[in-house]
């Protein structure tokens, strides 16, 4: 591929995405459908910008699925995964088994030899991890019972691919070329060594995640070279993929496992925000490639057969899933979502279909028809989910309100409070909130501090809170309050600006170190500003009064009155400051501001207490009455 | 010998003429605990356990305060709301205060006549103290008549010590069990009791 055509192709893909996705979003179709439409649009049957290379791009872009599973893994605590073992094995296992048998039986009944029928059954029993999870995530449906069930089934399917790949060569007619013989290291070894190798790889990932990756990340974090962290995150995912491919396991599964191992790590949010954009880009590319690879010529040549096949396939899968949902006690509305979202065939079918063609299990004619069927069913999925949302869900919403018990059993990772900075000011606020059982997500830029916190059992995450993606990963979109107590005013202002731009839902409580910082924050429109030392200094002042013999209550009221006065005076000065800024040097400005504040202290009649509980005037009045 | 607790509340003692003298005299009497609420809890954050322990250790509990707007200062209400817990001070299992005596020691700006039936304030002092009376009843306590220093607005400085010493001797009498329940029941104000403190 020469440089010119590479950039041209890249431009076509990017432009198509930039045009189609916002339009699809605007129309309420969702981003996934937008990408698919973009692919159809630039594909060989509409504009013809890209031709058959769509398939190659799809294989490359499948790496986006690997990244997605890494991210899903990293959001999933191991304990939670263990809790989900019943739905994963039960629901997922039954789905693969029943769907395989049912589809194989239909294929056999339709006249396919049993080997071909079984291969078809296995291939078509799988669903699309990429499309389903991305669509559910986009619509915020991952946390509900249907989303969790869909996830369990998809996870099992990823595991099921491994034995399938092992069985397929056995189904090949004698004498046919074995497709990927010798492709992987694993297949050259005897059976027991293969098994050993698979387990070895899994153990390696777990051990490396525990004992190698964390210290390595600490070292990298300490260099404070931002892109090195991104590089490392990518290396991690790519490395896992390579390892998994070598031993013949699914890279997606390996990445998921790697993610789970790192779920408890303090660098979790940082890793998430580093991988997220790559995942998004690659998945987008993948969806475009799927759209581009839909064979419209084939569709048009025998439309009835194609439509019939797609509908029949999706109906059969839907019914089996719905039955499973009933078996596992999903409420009807959740079950409908679960069954309809998984009724397509997944991207892995493309791999399996080309494998069956190479090995001669299925004739080329059948595989190309099935490839088209798979692509269409994938493209239909976002539409099916949309139809569920618009037509079916409204009927069930009332019912759902009655039985809210089950749905809550999900990942409650998003906290109402985000605390940026666990240094001087932040640590006290953080301890206070945790002491009051307010779930708080703690972010900090200092990796040593994070380690220290980790040792005392406080979960904090490494990262720069002024980054959109990190805030997003920390749940800023759903949180209520962000407490900004970062170490320097530059960081603080960066966070404030980011929050103001992208998370207007968050109430900002901001720590300010000095008077000028306070003014800067006021100019940014911050309402809740907490100047360092103001409260502690006044407490010292009040205690001094008390020791000198003033009543404690008087001292307390005096300090409180002074604070009110100070806040008012600072506000007034802030307005004045805007005009003077231009000609006063920063230092002179500072001195002058303090001098001005002290002047207002003097002007104020500090006998503020004089009216409270004072009876002088009352006594005088009474005296006159007596006379 | 009865142990007496004075729960004292004055938001601006630095401006006081009567209570500053009164409290100093009381502080000098053995067997009497003065608990200065505004000084201990300037932020009104009352330590309930500490207050309850203090109540348990005493037999007679007085609230001492200047009457403002026919009520005690705010901290007394805060104290009552927090300390007199259900199940501790009242209710089925709330017997902690049962059998103890309680009363009020207060000063008013106006003279006694203003608090007589048909007087300037429209009600008697006993009527203004009804919430205390009923609180005592709910806590199974004996409600004492109030000790009142009326007319502080017109009081000359040299008159103050007289009232203070009078109250001091009554406190001593209560401490030494010299007043029978009948004597107390007959009094409208504790001031009416005969000065038995210094007897013998």
From TrEMBL, chain A:
Region (Disordered): 603-627
One Pfam family per UniProt: Na_H_Exchanger
GO molecular function list: antiporter activity; monoatomic cation transmembrane transporter activity
PROSITE patterns documented for this protein: RCK_N
Highest taxon listed in the record's lineage: Bacteria
Subcellular location: Cell inner membrane
Keyword check for Transport: yes
Gene Ontology CC: plasma membrane
Keyword Metal-binding belongs to the record: no
Transmembrane segments: 6-24, 31-51, 57-76, 88-110, 116-136, 148-172, 192-213, 234-258, 303-324, 367-388
InterPro entries: Cation/H_exchanger_TM, K/H_exchanger, Na+/solute_symporter_sf, NAD(P)-bd_dom_sf, RCK_N
Membrane topology of the entry: Multi-pass membrane protein
Segments forming domain RCK N-terminal: 414-538
Keywords, alphabetical: Antiport, Cell inner membrane, Cell membrane, Ion transport, Membrane, Potassium, Potassium transport, Transmembrane, Transmembrane helix, Transport
Major subcellular location class: membrane
GO biological process, alphabetically ordered: potassium ion transport; proton transmembrane transport
Family to which this protein belongs: Belongs to the monovalent cation:proton antiporter 2 (CPA2) transporter (TC 2.A.37) family.
NCBIfam families: 2a37
Protein name as catalogued: Potassium transporter
Gene source species: Chitinophaga agrisoli
Upper taxonomic lineage: Bacteria, Pseudomonadati, Bacteroidota, Chitinophagia, Chitinophagales
From TrEMBL, chain B:
Assigned keywords, A-Z: Oxidoreductase
The keyword Oxidoreductase belongs to this UniProt entry's keyword annotation: yes
Occurrences of domain Flavodoxin-like fold (ranges): 3-157
Cross-referenced InterPro entries: Flavodoxin_fold (IPR003680), Flavoprotein-like_sf (IPR029039), KefG/KefF (IPR046980)
Alphabetical list of Pfam families matching this protein: Flavodoxin_2
UniProt cross-references to SUPFAM superfamilies, sorted A to Z: Flavoproteins (SSF52218)
One annotated GO molecular function: electron transfer activity
The keyword Oxidoreductase is annotated on this UniProt entry: yes
UniProt-recorded name of the protein: NAD(P)H oxidoreductase
Organism, scientific name: Chitinophaga agrisoli
């Amino acid at each position: 591929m020469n440089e010119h055509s590479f950039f041209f192709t890249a431009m076509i893909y990017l432009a198509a995405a930039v045009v189609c996705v916002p339009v699809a979003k605007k129309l309420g179709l969702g981003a996934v459908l937008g990408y698919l439409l973009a692919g159809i649009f630039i594909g060989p049957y509409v504009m013809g910008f890209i031709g058959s290379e769509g398939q190659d791009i799809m294989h490359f872009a499948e790496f986006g699925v690997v990244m997605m599973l890494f991210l899903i893994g990293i959001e999933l605590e191991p304990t939670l995964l263990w809790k989900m073992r019943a739905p994963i094995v039960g629901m997922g296992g039954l789905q693969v088994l029943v769907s395989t048998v049912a589809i194989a039986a239909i294929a056999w009944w339709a006249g396919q030899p049993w080997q071909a029928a079984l291969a078809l059954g296995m291939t078509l029993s799988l669903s699309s991890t990429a499309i389903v999870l991305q669509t559910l995530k986009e619509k915020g449906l991952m946390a509900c019972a249907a989303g969790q069930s869909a996830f369990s089934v998809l996870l099992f399917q990823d595991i099921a691919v491994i034995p399938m790949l092992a069985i397929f060569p056995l189904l090949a007619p004698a004498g046919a070329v074995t497709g990927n013989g010798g492709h992987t290291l694993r297949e050259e070894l005897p059976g027991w060594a293969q098994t050993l190798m698979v387990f070895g790889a899994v153990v390696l990932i777990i051990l490396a995640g525990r004992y190698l990756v964390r210290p390595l990340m600490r070292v990298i974090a300490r260099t404070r070279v931002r892109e090195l962290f991104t590089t490392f995150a990518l290396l991690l995912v790519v490395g896992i993929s390579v390892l998994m491919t070598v031993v013949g396991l699914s890279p997606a599964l390996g990445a998921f496992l790697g993610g789970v191992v790192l779920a408890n790590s303090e660098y979790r949010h940082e890793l998430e925000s580093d991988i997220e954009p790559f995942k998004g880009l690659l998945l987008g590319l993948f969806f475009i490639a799927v759209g581009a690879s839909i064979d419209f010529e084939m569709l048009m040549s025998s439309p009835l057969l194609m439509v019939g096949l797609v509908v029949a396939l999706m109906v059969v899968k839907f019914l089996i899933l719905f039955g499973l949902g009933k078996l596992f006690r999903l409420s009807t509305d959740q079950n409908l979502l679960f069954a309809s979202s998984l009724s397509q065939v997944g991207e892995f079918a493309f791999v399996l279909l080309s494998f069956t063609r190479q090995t001669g299990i299925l004739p080329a004619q059948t595989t190309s028809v099935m490839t088209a069927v798979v692509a269409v069913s994938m493209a239909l999925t976002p539409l099916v989910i949309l139809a569920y949302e618009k037509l079916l869900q409204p009927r069930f919403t009332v019912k759902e309100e009655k039985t809210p018990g089950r749905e809550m059993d999900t990942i409650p990772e998003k906290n109402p409070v985000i605390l940026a900075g666990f240094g001087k000011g932040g640590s006290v606020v953080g301890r206070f909130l945790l002491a009051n059982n307010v779930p708080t997500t703690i972010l900090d830029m200092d990796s040593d501090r994070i380690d220290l916190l980790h040792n005392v059992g406080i979960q904090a995450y490494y990262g720069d809170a002024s980054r959109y993606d990190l805030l997003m990963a920390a749940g800023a979109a759903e949180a209520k309050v962000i407490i900004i107590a970062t170490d320097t005013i530059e960081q603080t202002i960066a966070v404030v600006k980011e929050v103001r731009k992208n998370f207007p839902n968050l109430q900002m409580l901001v720590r300010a170190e000095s008077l000028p910082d306070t003014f800067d924050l006021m100019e940014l429109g911050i309402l809740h500003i907490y100047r360092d030392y103001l409260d502690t200094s006044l407490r010292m002042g009040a205690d001094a009064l008390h020791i000198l013999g003033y009543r404690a209550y008087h001292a307390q009221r005096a300090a409180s009155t002074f604070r009110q006065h100070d806040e008012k005076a600072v506000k007034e000065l802030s307005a004045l400051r805007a005009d003077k800024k231009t000609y006063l040097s920063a230092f002179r400005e500072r001195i002058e501001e303090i001098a001005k504040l002290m002047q207002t202290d003097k002007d104020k009649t500090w006998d503020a207490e004089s009216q409270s509980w004072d009876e002088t005037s009352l006594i005088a009045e009474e005296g006159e009455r007596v006379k | 010998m009865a142990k007496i607790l004075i729960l004292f509340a004055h938001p601006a003692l630095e401006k006081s003429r009567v209570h500053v003298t009164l409290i100093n005299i009381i502080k000098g009497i053995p067997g009497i605990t003065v608990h200065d609420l505004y000084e201990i809890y300037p932020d009104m954050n009352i330590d309930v356990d500490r207050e309850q322990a203090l109540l348990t250790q005493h037999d007679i509990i007085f609230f001492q305060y200047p009457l403002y707007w026919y009520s005690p200062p705010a901290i007394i209400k805060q104290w009552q709301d927090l300390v007199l817990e259900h199940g501790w001070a009242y209710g089925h299992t709330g017997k902690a205060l049962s059998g103890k005596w309680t009363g009020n020691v207060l000063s008013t700006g106006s003279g006694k006549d203003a608090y007589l039936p048909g007087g300037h304030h429209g009600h008697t002092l006993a009527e203004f103290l009804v919430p205390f009376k009923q609180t005592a009843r709910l806590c199974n306590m004996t409600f004492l008549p109030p000790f009142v220093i009326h007319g502080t607005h017109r009081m000359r400085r040299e008159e103050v010590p007289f009232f203070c010493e009078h109250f001091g001797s009554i406190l001593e009498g209560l401490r030494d069990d010299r007043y029978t329940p009948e004597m107390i029941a007959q009094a409208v104000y504790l001031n009416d009791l005969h000065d038995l403190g210094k007897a013998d």
